[in-house]
Design brief:
Number of helices: 8
Strand order of the largest sheet: 6-5-4-1-7
Helix content: 55-70%
Shape: globular
Radius of gyration: 22 Å
Low-confidence stretches: 5-9
Mean pLDDT: 87
Length: 238
């Protein structure tokens, strides 16, 4: 058993070293403006399922330099799913100015804006850690029979609030299926058939929310509330 554990440790160290070497090489190629080579090196890391926010961010930068806006937006969005970063958000907004569609989101009520801003303060993982820590502190205090009940009550209340925030963050970042349009022009139909009515058009780089799937068709909704059906081949799921 010890030998197997030792061998697994060696293999893990070798894999980590290989990933770090590829990442360093990718950074060097990016610095030398060899963006296609850098993309190839970064993608080879993703093939081994070693994803990270920084890796997706670097890939987004490479595609931005290559003026591939759909891939740029897709990779920035993937980076933000793992970690919210101000640089990534700024680059994403800058890239959105390069695409054709200008989709204005539906206006939110003040409390919806406040809640979304609160959720976006940290990533889902950070909210999970904070929730678990708060629950454990409350349990420890209860076990040691801390006499100030109002403090314990406050901790329980805080734990519930954090739990609700974590759930909302998970629903927004993981349970919500989204995609980026990759076709230069995509027809949005009223039904999942080619003969249905054309509602509107979307172009490369636009972000859509996936509501339902029927065969090769997906029911999508965009930020302004409009919805319809497109072919799955026209987009890449986040």
């Amino acid at each position: 058993m010890k030998k197997i554990t030792f061998l697994l440790s060696i293999l893990l160290c070798m894999q980590t070293f290989a990933v770090e070497h590829l990442f360093t090489q990718g950074n060097e190629e990016y610095a030398n403006e060899n963006y296609s080579v850098a993309i190839s090196l970064y993608d080879s890391i993703l093939i081994n399922k070693m994803e990270s926010s920084e890796l997706y961010y670097n890939l987004g930068n490479c595609y931005y330099k290559s003026q591939d806006w759909a891939n740029t937006i897709w990779h920035y969005e993937k980076s933000l799913q793992l970690e919210r970063n101000e640089k990534t958000l700024q680059n994403l907004e800058l890239t959105k100015l390069k695409i054709i569609d200008r989709i204005e989101p539906m206006p939110q009520l003040f409390y919806q804006k406040w809640w979304n801003n609160l959720i976006n303060l940290f990533s889902t993982k950070i909210w999970q850690i904070l929730t678990i820590l708060c629950i454990w502190i409350a349990l420890i205090i209860r076990l040691v029979n801390y006499k100030k009940k109002y403090f314990l009550t406050s901790l329980h209340t805080l734990s519930l609030i954090l739990l609700f925030i974590t759930y909302s963050s998970y629903q927004k970042n993981y349970n919500k299926k989204e995609a980026i349009i990759f076709s230069s022009t995509t027809i949005v139909n009223s039904a999942p058939t080619n003969n249905s009515t054309t509602l509107f058009f979307l172009h490369s780089g636009s972000k859509v929310e996936i509501i339902d799937t029927i065969g090769e068709w997906i029911n999508i909704k965009i930020a302004n509330g409009n919805n319809g059906w497109i072919k799955e081949s026209d987009c890449k799921i986040l």
